Every structure is written in structure tokens, then in C-alpha cells.
Task: inverse folding
């Protein structure tokens, strides 16, 4: 799925790096614990989270993720967006809660890939 | 790269959770510029990032050094924090002394040190209670 599809399905506000929305992603993970993302996530390209701080973007960058979706209408600070821009990470915000947001993406085919889908 | 080795040094501000990870971000860019494979870059930067976070949440900051050598990348993390009393215990998955306010920031699952070991080819911890901690990690290239 393209990141534009994520934005559409979750009715997101896209907050930075809109120019990259055409990029394809094949899997996502949802977590509020960055420790767990660093320890268990394999090759997921999208991080859905209810946690709001700069380390979310840093964690995504370390994991080579390309998109962060903040759930429950969380609005990232200027600083978070600045770091995301520097790192070229697409940031979006959705009104859906974590469970719903993950469910919608899964039901629409994200993560339906062979192999390890842990996370 | 030739036979030359490259050296970089980063200060990690222990007062500032927001800026934690800057050394790892810089390192990631340096390694990309040198042209290492994505897998090597990811392993080095995750290991360094976990170490950097530990310095901020457990040790009031410190210094990160990066050595790019012909056959390996070496990271040395040095701090003058409280030290680690029982290293074997600290290395166990899930062991953490992080307070709840750290967990509410998304860290403190006790996976950092095990993760650093998992992503690197060697890891050595020297620590003295009351004096500080030095962690040396290498990734073969
Ligand atoms: N640089 C450090 N200085 C002092 N103690 C440390 C340091 N790094 C790790 N520790 C100790 O080791 C424990 C385990 O570390 P880690 O596996 O990274 O888990 P976490 O950071 O989630 O607590 C920490 O909770 C802390 O007690
Ligand atoms: Mg840690």
C-alpha cells in the first residue's frame, strides 16, 4: 500500500514530508513502548503510536522506518516535526485509536506478507 | 576507505531527554556517507542509540566515541554515572531499574543491554559502582 492510502484510510492530517506519500510500504507495527520497537520489530516501515515525544522519531529513524502515525488525534510539537523533516520521515495524525487504526490498515492488506509479522 | 581509520566523538547531554539520540543520528549519516550496507548501519545505530538512551536515563550523560576501522566499527560509551552493580543481572532481558516516569516516555523495558549485545559482534562492560560505566561494542564489517 502507498502512504497516501494510509492517509486516506485513517483520515489523517499529514504533517510533514508530504512529497514522500507516494512511497510503498508493506508492513506496520503499533506500540507505545519504544524499547519494544527497538527490541522486537523486524522490517516494519510504519510505526503507529500514542506516545508523543522526540524519541518516537529517533526510534523510527534507527529502525529505518519511513512513516509515523500518531493515533488519538495527538498533535506533535514543532520540535518533533523538525526532527522528522530532517530525517525524511512522513508524520501523520489520525483521530482513530490504536486498536482501530491498526485494524483498518490490517483489514486493507497491510502486513499480509510472508514471514515474521511480529510487532 | 583505505587503511585510514576515522574517529568521531559526541557528548551526550544527561539533562536533556529530548536531544538523546543525536549521536546515533549523526553516526547513521556518517556510516551512510562512508557507504556501509544498510544492515551494518542499522545494527550500529540501534546499539549506539540504546547506549545513548541508557546514558541519559541512568547515568546523567556521557561521551560516545565512534571508530571506523578497516575491518570493524567500534563504539565506546563512557559515563561517570552510578555504575552497574550486577552486570549479569543488568544483561537479563526485562531487568530494569528505570522508574515509571521513564516507562511513560516509552523506555525502561529492560531490553537495552540485551539488544546492544544482540546487534553487535562483541560487547564488553566495565563498571564500578560510584564511578561509572564503559561499554565497548564492535560490529565487524
Ligand atoms: N550507563 C548505565 N549506568 C548505570 N546503570 C545502567 C547503565 N546502563 C544500564 N544500566 C542498568 O542496567 C539496567 C538494564 O539496562 P537496559 O537493558 O538498557 O534496560 P532499561 O534501560 O530499559 O532499564 C538498567 O535498568 C540500569 O539499572
Ligand atoms: Mg536501556
Result:
Amino acid at each position: 500500500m502507498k502512504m497516501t492510502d494510509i492517509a486516506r484510510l485513517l483520515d489523517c492530517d499529514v504533517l510533514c514530508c508530504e512529497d514522500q506519500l507516494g512511497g510503498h510500504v508493506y508492513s506496520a507495527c503499533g506500540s507505545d513502548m519504544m524499547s519494544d520497537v527497538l527490541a522486537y520489530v523486524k522490517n516494519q516501515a510504519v510505526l503507529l503510536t500514542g506516545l508523543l515525544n522526540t524519541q518516537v522519531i529517533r526510534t523510527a529513524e534507527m529502525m529505518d522506518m519511513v512513516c509515523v502515525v500518531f493515533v488519538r488525534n495527538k498533535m506533535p510539537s514543532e520540535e518533533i516535526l523538525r526532527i522528522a523533516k530532517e530525517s525524511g520521515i512522513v508524520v501523520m495524525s489520525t483521530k482513530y485509536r490504536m486498536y482501530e487504526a491498526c485494524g483498518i490498515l490490517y483489514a486493507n492488506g497491510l502486513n499480509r506478507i510472508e514471514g515474521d509479522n511480529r510487532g | 576507505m583505505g587503511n585510514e581509520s576515522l574517529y568521531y566523538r559526541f557528548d551526550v547531554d544527561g539533562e536533556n531527554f529530548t536531544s538523546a539520540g543525536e549521536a546515533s543520528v549523526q553516526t547513521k549519516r556518517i556510516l551512510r556517507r562512508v557507504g556501509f550496507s544498510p544492515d551494518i548501519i542499522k545494527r550500529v545505530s540501534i546499539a549506539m542509540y540504546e547506549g545513548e538512551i541508557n546514558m541519559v536515563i541512568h547515568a546523567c550523560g556521557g561521551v560516545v566515541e565512534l571508530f571506523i576501522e578497516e575491518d570493524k566499527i567500534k563504539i565506546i560509551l563512557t559515563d561517570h554515572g552510578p555504575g552497574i552493580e550486577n552486570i549479569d543481572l543488568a544483561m537479563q532481558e526485562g531487568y530494569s531499574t528505570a522508574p515509571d516516569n521513564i516507562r511513560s516516555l516509552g523506555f525502561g523495558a529492560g531490553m537495552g543491554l540485551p539488544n546492544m549485545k544482540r546487534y553487535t559482534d562483541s560487547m564488553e562492560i566495565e563498571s564500578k559502582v560510584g564511578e561509572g560505566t564503559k561499554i565497548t561494542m564492535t560490529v565487524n564489517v
